[in-house]
């Protein structure tokens, strides 16, 4: 089954020139762009979206949306969908990534061609341009290390907020140098507070042998590092010391050490490039692991986004790694955003366009059930003996054949032309032979509806005007069965009102072939 959640707000932010303070929350496009001057990358844009998950949470609690009912226990999955309006200069292969935002933001009403720009919502520099004190915040406190660049502070003593050098360490020429010696720490005391989490960064500026770790003299927060480079780690303190601990054979230099408290308890990142700002997001869902990133790779294909963000949505909904739902940010993946070789300008359709192609989260889960577990002979008998009123006198008694020997077809039962958006309706389906075999008889003959065997029938929903497939045939659109017929359910409040939708039906044969039935089974959703 499918359910659609549309954005409560969306916008794009853009760093180039004077755009860094402009708001584009009212635009009908969401621009993901890399701006070049010749071969030089000048700036990028990013996309922000927020989805209200209140109804989804309620549906999960009430079991209206639930784990698969076919016994495999698979929980719902969530996919971010965005649709291309136009694109240019797009590399044939690239990746996009999303992170959950760590700050709230306002969408605003500005748009690309507005002059002057309203500046009443999110921008590259701020989460809300209506106020001056809403700069994007990386969620970190101030610098706690004294002289992280090893420029002036040299104190071999064992007390005070200075670098304390043990045997094998020297500080000179703007670096801390270690030569082959004992395993002695380079230390600052009184830097950490027990129980708090810190972001630690440092450079190995040069190295010829050995490795180093960073720790608090109790907990080692990093893997052993044995190559020149910049390293980032997160440490939850069990002591007040901060140590850089070498192996006895480490020969190299350390520089640019930084320690900042993680104020919200979770590792975050900011999107600053040439211009400060660009959003702020969680990079992990807990202190040391649980990456918050979701991504999708593209290779010579449509730039429409169909990204699995199940882990992100589950973290918004609750559980061990619950995070606040501030929405998400969509950007070029990792180093591709800074690359001068990967190019692209993608315009996605925004929710302000009031289009069938609005951004959305697709909730997908396998809800099909087979509530009738008797034999087909029992089924006939139980129907004849059943009490109450049956809506459908032609209940299916035996299944359609799937070996290809009969010309079977599928059809809708009592399909209405309109449905209310407040309905969660069971759409009835049956099968039968297309043509009745001629026989000589003295009584009137009738065709009885037949059952579609479990797993052999599925449905699809398309938007008639555009031909866009909203619900494809597949594992999330199998037909269910109850005591009356095959059926499928739709949550109609996620369908756009007053559009014409068409139901397609599909029958899978034993040899793997499919028969698709398009008989203009059309309906509208009204308020």
What is the structure about, briefly put?
With 527 residues, this protein is mostly beta strands.
Characterization of the model:
The chain is mainly β and 527 residues long. It has three domains: 2-134 and 270-364, no CATH class; 142-262, Sandwich (Jelly Rolls), CATH 2.60.120; 376-526, Immunoglobulin-like (Sandwich). 5% of the residues lie in helices and 38% in strands. It has three helices and 33 strands. The protein has helices at residues 54-61, 310-317, 376-385; strands at 2-5, 9-14, 29-37, 40-50, 77-82, 84-88, 93-100, 140-143, 164-165, 169-172, 175-178, 186-188, 197-209, 212-215, 229-236, 242-246, 251-262, 268-270, 280-282, 294-299, 305-308, 328-332, 345-349, 360-364, 408-413, 418-420, 424-433, 457-463, 469-471, 480-481, 486-491, 500-508, 514-526. Strands 2, 3, 4, 6, 7, 20, 22 and 23 form an eight-stranded antiparallel β-sheet that branches. Strand 10 and strand 11 form a beta hairpin. The protein starts with a strand and ends with a strand. The model is unreliable at 374-396 (pLDDT under 50).
Main attributes of the structure:
Jelly Rolls, 3 helices, mainly beta, 6-stranded antiparallel β-sheet, 5% helix, 3 domains, 527 residues, elongated, Immunoglobulin-like, 8-stranded antiparallel β-sheet
Sheet having the most strands: 8 strands, antiparallel
Quaternary structure state of the chains depicted: single chain
Count of strand segments: 33
Number of domains: 3
Number of helices: 3
Helices and strands, with pairings:
Blueprint: E1 2-5, E2 9-14, E3 29-37, E4 40-50, H1 54-61, E5 77-82, E6 84-88, E7 93-100, E8 140-143, E9 164-165, E10 169-172, E11 175-178, E12 186-188, E13 197-209, E14 212-215, E15 229-236, E16 242-246, E17 251-262, E18 268-270, E19 280-282, E20 294-299, E21 305-308, H2 310-317, E22 328-332, E23 345-349, E24 360-364, H3 376-385, E25 408-413, E26 418-420, E27 424-433, E28 457-463, E29 469-471, E30 480-481, E31 486-491, E32 500-508, E33 514-526
Parallel strand pairs: 26-33
Antiparallel strand pairs: 1-24, 2-4, 3-4, 3-23, 4-22, 5-21, 5-24, 6-23, 7-20, 7-22, 8-17, 9-12, 10-11, 11-17, 12-16, 13-15, 13-17, 14-16, 18-19, 25-27, 27-31, 28-29, 28-32, 30-31, 32-33
């Amino acid at each position: 089954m499918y359910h659609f959640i549309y954005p409560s707000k969306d916008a794009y932010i853009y760093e180039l020139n004077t755009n860094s303070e402009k708001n584009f929350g009212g635009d009908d496009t969401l621009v993901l762009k890399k701006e070049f001057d010749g071969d030089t990358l000048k700036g990028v844009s990013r996309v922000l979206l927020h989805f209200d998950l209140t109804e989804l949470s309620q549906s999960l609690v009430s079991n209206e949306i639930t784990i698969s009912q076919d016994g495999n226990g698979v929980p719902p999955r969530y996919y971010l969908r965005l649709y291309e309006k136009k694109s240019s200069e797009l590399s044939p292969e690239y990746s996009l990534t999303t992170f959950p935002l760590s700050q709230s933001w306002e969408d605003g009403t500005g748009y690309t061609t507005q002059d002057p720009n309203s500046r009443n919502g999110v921008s590259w520099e701020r989460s809300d341009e209506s106020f001056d004190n809403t700069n994007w915040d990386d969620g970190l406190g101030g610098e706690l290390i004294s002289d992280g660049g090893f420029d002036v502070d040299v104190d071999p003593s064992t007390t005070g907020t200075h670098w304390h050098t043990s045997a094998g360490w020297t500080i000179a020429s703007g670096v801390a140098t270690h030569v082959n010696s004992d395993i002695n720490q380079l230390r600052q005391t009184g830097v950490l507070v027990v129980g708090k989490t810190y972001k630690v960064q440092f450079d190995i500026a040069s190295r010829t042998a050995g490795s180093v770790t960073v720790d608090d003299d109790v907990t080692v927060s990093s893997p052993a590092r044995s190559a020149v480079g910049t390293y980032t780690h997160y440490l939850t303190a069990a002591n007040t010391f901060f140590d850089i601990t070498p192996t006895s054979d480490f020969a190299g230099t350390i520089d640019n050490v930084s320690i900042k408290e993680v104020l919200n308890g979770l590792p975050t990142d900011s999107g600053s490039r040439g211009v400060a700002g660009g959003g702020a997001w969680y990079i992990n869902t807990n202190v040391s692991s649980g990456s918050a990133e979701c991504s999708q790779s593209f290779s010579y294909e449509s730039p429409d986004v169909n990204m699995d963000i199940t882990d992100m949505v589950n973290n918004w909904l609750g559980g061990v790694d619950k995070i606040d739902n501030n929405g998400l940010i969509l950007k070029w993946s990792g180093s591709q955003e800074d690359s001068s070789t990967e190019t692209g300008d993608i315009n996605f359709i925004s929710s302000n366009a009031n289009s069938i192609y609005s951004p959305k989260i697709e909730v997908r889960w396998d809800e099909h059930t087979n509530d009738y577990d008797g034999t087909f002979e029992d089924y006939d008998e139980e129907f004849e003996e059943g009490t109450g009123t049956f809506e459908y006198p032609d209940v299916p008694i035996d299944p359609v054949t799937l070996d290809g020997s009969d010309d079977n077809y599928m059809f809708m039962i009592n399909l209405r032309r309109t449905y209310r958006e407040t309905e969660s309706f069971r759409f009835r389906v049956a099968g039968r032979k297309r043509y009745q075999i001629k026989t000589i008889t003295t009584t009137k003959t009738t065709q009885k509806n037949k059952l579609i065997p479990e797993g052999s029938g599925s449905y699809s929903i398309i938007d008639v005007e555009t031909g866009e497939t909203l619900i494809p045939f597949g594992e999330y659109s199998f037909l269910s069965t109850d005591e009356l017929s095959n059926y499928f359910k739709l949550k109609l409040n996620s369908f756009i009102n007053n559009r014409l939708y068409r139901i397609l039906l599909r029958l899978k044969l034993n040899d793997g072939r499919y028969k698709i039935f398009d008989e203009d089974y059309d309906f509208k959703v009204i308020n």
